[in-house]
Design goal:
The chain is α/β, with parallel strands linked by helices. The chain is built from nine helices and 14 strands. The strands form four sheets. The protein has a seven-stranded mixed beta sheet, with helices on both faces. Helix 2 crosses helix 6, helix 3 packs across helix 4 and helix 7 packs parallel to helix 9. Bound molecules: pyridoxal-5'-phosphate.
Length: 354
């Protein structure tokens, strides 16, 4: 039986993408060859890379605006250092909204000053800082749009007179934003786009080439741009599967259409969390993520009963991250509303039973 997969990542992808991707493992485009055994320089694969790039730009509304799209390796975690390597001359600013931001700051410190412009560490990251001043002498300002572990999401992005860099690993392509406010957007594929193994980087070319240090080729955005993400062998299967997900999203009506679905799912679970006295939410209400809902039982003694109930209903991946505890329902683009309804029904059943 197919599970209701609430896992935070690697995560659910559309069933039709799994079907098509598995077919391509056996026979890609009727070539008699598998997608994983063809040359990455063959026309068939170059077309895949091209389509993935242009779909990403189209879906984000960034065509013709000076942006380049890269599919790199090393995860979002490598972007923590690559952004700093390529852009940090003396001082960068960071909005610290969770463990991932914290890790990005740690890497940036290897290259220069990484100033914490704002932080919600004082409350175990259960809210998004607001009303802070952004200094006007930064090389760039870095933020994390969605805090996967804590279940908070930035609704209003900071204004700065420097390039804005955003880690969108866990909510890329999930909501309507003016994406042109960002100079770099990066996202590990495995939260909302594809299997682990590739990282999407969308960046404005004109912010590059302004620092003095030497950059190793594999970590240099300009090298990857000049080689169209083929400086070395790209992760062909991860790129192909991501492309299929982007095709699926375009067919659905793009980000605006999926955003509406994501709102419905979020509303459904948060209203249960708020109305059911057995549960309490973790994140501040106004900062709640539409992707990852974090909550816990008001009374721990029901844990065993609740855990048995959701597992028996075919739900997977509901345990919270160890730094928050409780539960986390990750509801990425491919999760159907019906799966969230199954979970909400169980929460209701628990209340009736208790
Ligand atoms: C998962 C995650 C990461 C880490 O991604 P990797 O691809 O595993 O390096 C970074 N940032 C955010 C917001 C994430 O959710």
């Amino acid at each position: 039986m197919k599970k209701h997969n609430f896992s935070a990542g690697p995560c659910i992808l559309p069933q039709e993408v799994f079907n098509e991707a598995s077919q391509a493992i056996l026979d890609f485009n009727n070539s008699g060859l598998s997608i994983v055994e063809i040359s990455h320089r063959s026309k068939d694969f170059v077309d895949v890379m091209e389509e993935a790039r242009s779909l990403a730009l189209e879906l984000l509304g960034l065509e013709g605006k000076g942006y380049k799209v890269l599919f790199l390796q090393g995860g979002a975690s490598t972007q923590f250092l690559m952004t700093a390597y390529n852009l940090l001359q003396s001082k960068a600013g960071y909005i610290n909204t969770g463990s991932w931001s914290d890790k990005a700051i740690k890497e940036a410190k290897l290259f220069g000053e990484a100033l914490e412009v704002a932080s919600s560490k004082d409350a175990n990251y259960n809210y998004i800082p607001k009303g802070y001043e952004v200094p006007n002498d930064l090389d760039y300002l870095h933020c994390t749009s969605n805090n996967t572990i804590f279940g908070t999401q930035i609704k209003e992005f900071p204004k700065a007179n420097c390039p804005l860099v955003c880690d969108m690993s866990s909510d890329i392509f999930s909501r309507v934003l003016d994406f042109s406010q960002f100079s770099i957007i990066y996202a590990g594929a495995q939260k909302n786009m594809g299997p682990a193994g590739t990282t999407l980087v969308v960046l404005k070319e004109d912010i590059l080439g302004k620092i003095e240090r030497q950059i190793p080729s594999m970590l240099d955005y300009q090298v990857h741009i000049s080689k169209s993400s083929m400086f070395n062998t790209p992760p062909v299967f991860a790129v192909y599967t991501s492309m299929l997900t982007l095709r699926w999203l375009k067919k659905l009506g793009g980000i605006a259409a999926i955003a509406e679905e994501n709102e419905k799912k979020a509303k459904l679970i948060y209203s249960e969390i708020d109305l059911n006295p057995l549960f309490k939410g973790f994140a501040a209400k106004e900062d709640r993520s539409t992707m990852n809902a974090t909550f816990s039982l008001a009374d721990g003694h029901l844990k065993e009963t609740f855990d048995t109930m959701w597992k028996e209903a075919g739900i997977n991946g509901l345990n919270g991250h160890r730094s928050v505890g409780g539960y986390r329902a990750s509801m990425y683009n491919a999760m159907p509303l019906e799966s969230v309804a199954v979970l909400v029904d169980i929460m209701g059943d628990l209340e009736r039973k208790a």
